[in-house]
Amino acid sequence: MNSAPDISVVVPLYNEKESLAELAAWIARVCRAEKLSYEVIFVDDGSDDGSWGVVENLVRNADGVEKDRYSGIIRGIKFSRNYGKSAALYAGFEAARGEVVITMDADLQDSPDEIPELRRMILEDGYDLVSGWKKERHDPLGKRLPSKFFNATTRAVSGIKLHDMNCGLKAYRHSVVKSIEVYGEMHRYIPILARQAGFRRIGEKVVEHHPRRFGSSKYGIERMVKGYLDLITVSFLSRFGRHPMYLFGSLGTIMFLGGGITAVWLIVEKLVKQARGLPLRIVADQPMFYIALVTLILGVMLFLTGFLGELINRNAPDRNKYSKDKTI
Question: What is the distance between the alpha carbons of residues 110 and 241, in angstroms, rounded to a whole number?
Fold first, then answer.
């Protein structure tokens, strides 16, 4: 199949060998029923349970089948070690050729039956990105409650009204996955990254969520901590990534002026009392004087931080890299 397929299904995986063959067959059934050409890209994030061997078998078996317009191809990418879901998605996005790109987890909790409607919402309803919403989740309470709190916080900070920001089942217009860079643990915030790149038509669809049948969840408390740190990072980058002086310069100026005015006020107060013969304290004996000095120093440091950030941005190779919608 030389032409670009109708859809690319990107499946990041880590130790999910039991579910891969069933998932590939399920995707094939759905796409053939809908008469869609497709490719499935399995990205093995350093599995050590034999998952890559399963992927190799799926690729060989798919290659041996007689092809027609609605046949699919299976491709595999294997990392030498575990880099994380963001890295796996980035590699999958880089390889994807489909008009619409679908991402889903490999554990069979995401249903490939959702693919046709997700694709329709991209092509017919005009969305750039559609995120799944697992309204009824089959996960332990210890995973559901932190997820609800996490999503509420993310909605408040980002302004993007999605109920399930971190749902693995998402659909993207091809241009979206080629315009965003997913790194670290930023897969949780792909809608924010997409909006930052200029793709503002972001929708949501209630999707079916199945109980986990194989393997174990990779979710842990450390991921929640990392998630909030990444939320701070992505919020800062989306607002001040190209102009750090706007934040650091403003804070530095306010602190410098506040500390300077306080120090001057203490000195003037001492001189006035001294001139009137009133009892007074030495300026250097007053705690407020040292607070003012620290505020002055911090203000200068923050201002210089913003200035250095601007210098780094000025010399960055992608400083004039912009997302273009059309050129005529």
Answer: 34
